[in-house]
Design brief:
7 helices; Cathepsin B, Chain A; disordered N terminus; alpha+beta
C-alpha cells in the first residue's frame, strides 16, 4: 500500500513538473521569437497602380493589381516599379479568369481572392483572421507579403475621403515599429505609403459578394507565398 502511494505521489509530482517545464518552454520560445523581430523590415515588392496604362475609367482592379505586385516579387522582381505592359497583361488575365470562374470581375473578397491567387497564379495563401501586428511582422520576416482587404475611406487620406474606392485591397510589404509600409494600387502615389497598425486594423473589412457590401467584423489578412 505504502509503495503504491509513493509511486502515485511520484507520478503526480513528475506530471506537475513536466507541465511547468512545458509551459515555461512555451513562454521562453515565444519570448525568443518575439525578440528576433527587428524594429524595421521591408520587402522589395515592386509597385504598380491599378491603372498601369493610366486608364482610371471604371477601374476596380485593386485585387488583381495587388496580386500582380506580390506575384512579381515572389517570382524575383524586386524593382521599384513593375513595367506597365506585363502588369496590364496580368490584370487582364486575372479578369478573364474571374469572368470564366466567377461570372464577374469587380469586388472579390478574401475567399475569392484566395481562390484566384491559387488557381490562376499558383500561389499559396494562408488566411489569418483577427490578425495582430506580430502576426504580420512574423510573416513579412519570412518573405511573405500580405494582402489586406479594407474600407479605404477609413485610411483617413484625402483622396479616398473625397473620391476613390470604398472596398479596396492593398499590399503590406514592411514595417517600422508599429507603422506598416504598404503598396496601395488605388493611386499613382501609392508606393511605400505608411499607416499605423491601429489604422489598418480599423479599416480592415472583407467583401460579402452575396450581400454586395463590406463586412467590417471580418478582419482578415492574406499571407502570400509560393
Amino acid at each position: 500500500m505504502l509503495k503504491n502511494a509513493l509511486t502515485k505521489s511520484y507520478m503526480l509530482y513528475a506530471g506537475v513538473v513536466f507541465v511547468l517545464l512545458l509551459g515555461g518552454g512555451f513562454y521562453i520560445f515565444k519570448f525568443v521569437i518575439t525578440k528576433k523581430i527587428p524594429t524595421s523590415f521591408v520587402l522589395a515588392v515592386p509597385f504598380s497602380a491599378q491603372a498601369p496604362s493610366n486608364n482610371w475609367t471604371r477601374n476596380e482592379d485593386c485585387e488583381e493589381t495587388s496580386l500582380a505586385m506580390v506575384n512579381a516579387f515572389l517570382n524575383g522582381n524586386t524593382k521599384e516599379n513593375i513595367s506597365a505592359l506585363p502588369t496590364q497583361t496580368t490584370i487582364d488575365n486575372l479578369k478573364k479568369w474571374e469572368e470564366k470562374n466567377l461570372g464577374y470581375n469587380a469586388d472579390t473578397g478574401a475567399n475569392t481572392t484566395t481562390r484566384m491567387a491559387q488557381d490562376a497564379l499558383g500561389l499559396k495563401i494562408k488566411q489569418i483572421p483577427n490578425y495582430t501586428a506580430l502576426d504580420l511582422k512574423t510573416e513579412l520576416m519570412k518573405g511573405h507579403p500580405v494582402l489586406l482587404p479594407i474600407n479605404a475611406k477609413l485610411l483617413g487620406i484625402t483622396q479616398y475621403l473625397e473620391d476613390g474606392p470604398t472596398y479596396h485591397m492593398i499590399v503590406i510589404r514592411g514595417f517600422r515599429d508599429d507603422i506598416f509600409i504598404v503598396n496601395d494600387p488605388g493611386t499613382n502615389n501609392g508606393e511605400g505609403n505608411e499607416y499605423a497598425f491601429s489604422v489598418l486594423q480599423k479599416a480592415s473589412a472583407d467583401w460579402d459578394n452575396a450581400l454586395q457590401k463590406m463586412d467590417s467584423s471580418r478582419k482578415i489578412a492574406l499571407i502570400v507565398s509560393k
